Amino acid sequence: MSTKALSITRIDNTHLVRCGHANWVLVEEGSDLTLIDGGYPANGGDVERSIEQIGHSIGDVRAVLVTHAHIDHIGGIADILTRHDLPVLMDPLEVPHARREYLQQLGPVKVPLLLWRRGAPKWLFDVIGAGALKGAKLPQAQAFAEGSALDVPGRIVPIPTHGHTDGHSAYLIPGAGVVASGDALVTGHATSRQTGPQFLVCPFNHHRAATDEALDAIAATPAGTIFPGHGPAYEGTMTAAVEQARAGRTRMRP
Ligand SMILES: [Zn+2]
Question: What is the annotated signal peptide range for this record (predicted)?
Answer without folding.
Answer: none
